[in-house]
Amino acid sequence: GPAPEQVGPHSFELLELLGRGSFGEVYRARHRQTRQSFAMKVLRKFRIRSSNLLRYTLTERNILAYVRHPYIVSLHHAFQTPSYLVLVLQFCPRGNLQQLINREGRLPQALARLGCRRAFLMVSGSLRKDTPVVDEIVAALGPLCAGVWDGMPAHTPREAVIDAAGKARQAGADVIVTLGGGSLTDGAKAVRIALAENVTDVAGLEPLHYQPGKRGSQIRSTPLIPQVTIPTTLSAGEFSPYAGVTDTAKKAAS
């Protein structure tokens, strides 16, 4: 039989720009033979190399090629040109997060069912800077949004936890909503503990961390405020009650 098609730029027709990010653009593209629509993520190689993120980009490609899950877009093709890395992904035609929330009202309704009135958002700094999604969530929450914080570095340092907890305390937060990866998810768990234990400085976190071979932390049974997590990575931190927080002085997680 005939050899399978070698998929490349010639295989697709670009229809419209869907969005821009730090490393490139996402287009709605149509396969010239099948007429099927896809989301084509076009990444500039020089930006990836200059940020030393090639390994992470390849990991993203490998994970998307392997995972099959109703909440994660599927990868159909991947190829490269001299200047670009291209991921051809499942196209989701029902609009963005703002449109979904406006249409179905799920996030505000979920917070209302929890009895919450002061939602404190802990969000990815890059998402807030490079996409409209954070503003869309804030607009959808309306008066339920008590504040937005986007200062979490990688590996969840204790100093950032204390800063976020202070902002959440000032805002009178009664629920934490996160939008980001594993560091942010873990950070929000630690913020909830800091709020419940009235911890206001880094030293106050020391008695609360788990120490192998010892009796464990000194966390009291004070009720924690709820946490609603919208993950953007495959860290799976939302499935665990534990929080990994970095002691920067010792350069160790706890």
Automatic annotation (TrEMBL):
Principal EC category: transferase
Example GO molecular function term?
Answer: oxidoreductase activity
Per UniProt, the keywords (alphabetical) are: ATP-binding, Kinase, Nucleotide-binding, Oxidoreductase, Serine/threonine-protein kinase, Transferase
Q: Give residues annotated as binding ATP.
A: K41
Which Gene Ontology biological process is one annotated for this entry?
intracellular signal transduction
Q: Which reaction is this enzyme known to catalyze? A: L-threonyl-[protein] + ATP = O-phospho-L-threonyl-[protein] + ADP + H(+); L-seryl-[protein] + ATP = O-phospho-L-seryl-[protein] + ADP + H(+)
Query: Which Pfam families would you find in this protein's record?
Result: Fe-ADH
Q: Which residues form the Protein kinase domain?
A: 12-254
Q: Matching InterPro entries, A to Z?
A: ADH_Fe/GldA, Kinase-like_dom_sf, Prot_kinase_dom, Protein_kinase_ATP_BS, Ser_Thr_kinase_AGC
Q: What is its EC number?
A: 2.7.11.1
Keyword check for Phosphoprotein, yes or no.
no
Q: Does the keyword Transport apply?
A: no
- Known SMART domains for this protein? S_TKc
Instruction: Extract the PANTHER family matched here.
Output: RAC SERINE_THREONINE-PROTEIN KINASE (PTHR24356:SF407), SERINE/THREONINE-PROTEIN KINASE (PTHR24356)
Q: What is this protein called?
A: non-specific serine/threonine protein kinase
Its source organism is Alexandrium catenella (Red tide dinoflagellate)
